[in-house]
Amino acid sequence: MATQKKATETDYSMQEKILALYDLQKIDSQIDSINKVKGELPLEVRDLEDELEGLRERVKNQNAEIEELSALTKQRKREVDQAKIAITNYKEQQNNVRNNREFDAISKEIEYQELTIELAEKRLKEYAATSKTKKEQLELAEQAVSERVKDLEAKQAELHSIEEETASQVAELKGYAEKASAKIDERLLAAYNRIRGNVHNGLAVVTVRRDACGGCYNRIPPQRQAEIQQGKKVIICEYCGRILVADPEAGTAEGTEK
Question: Could you tell me if 148 and 55 are in contact, meaning their C-beta atoms sit under 8 angstroms apart?
């Protein structure tokens, strides 16, 4: 494939490559113009998707925390039940003790089980309060998820509608762009794409009009303009770094103005 590209490149003169660059810029500018119709929609869709992912993760974590509190509640309730049973058994044993020492030992066991119940009940109240708060937070998070899903679906539908309306036009323009790109060597094409990415309006190739750069409007010296007209090499604006070309439509434009 690389060999085929290299062979194709030799078929075109520098002037033809520069003209192809000019055509490619016009095509890319048309595609940019179509994409502007989407406005901030693609970004808004991505932001909503990211927000939804975060909200769903929050819902998942809150559900896990509520389940953990539920498990701890069951455990503490079992501890209370076991302690109550133990107290009942110890009290029965107290009725059959042979001396004060045995009575005191059992009394201490009963006291320990009562403290276990007291601590467990304290924890149960804490779990209940925390669980209530978590459930309220979960309800708010689930509500937020529901609202964001609706927002996302609306934005996606709007974006899909625009893309559907412009799909055939964009596809056609991309076909033209491929044909123009085929006339440009890889190094020059890479430079074009790099410049396009660095300028705010996507204009990497501009014409000289009224003796000035069409990108930054700085004056171009006559000798430089003559070199641009010849089209024997790629000329870069020394001020903004854009590729300067002679305007093939200059004659037509001037005739129209007159």
Answer: yes
Residue recorded with tokens 């804490």: 126
Dihedral sign (CA 58, 59, 62, 67): negative
Contacts of 15 (CB under 8 A, 6+ apart): 231, 232
pTM for this model (two decimals): 0.60
151 and 30, same structural domain? no
Number of independent structural domains in the chain: 2
Q: Which whole-number Å values give the CA distances from 254 to 227, 244, 250, in the listed order?
A: 21, 19, 6
166 shares a domain with 71: yes
Q: Which is nearest to 135 in space by CA: 70, 62, 69?
A: 62
User: Range of 161's domain?
Assistant: 41-178
Q: Of the candidates 120, 150, 178, which is a domain's last residue?
A: 178
Residues 189 and 170 occupy one common structural domain = no
Q: Which long-range contacts (CB under 8 A, 24 or more apart) does 141-145 make?
A: 141/55, 141/58, 141/59, 141/62, 142/59, 144/55, 145/52, 145/55, 145/56, 145/59
- pLDDT, position 39: 84
Which residues are bridge partners to 219 per DSSP?
212
Evaluate the CA torsion angle 17, 18, 19, 24 in order and state its sign: positive
Given pLDDT bands bounded at 50, 70 and 90, which one contains residue 240?
Answer: very high
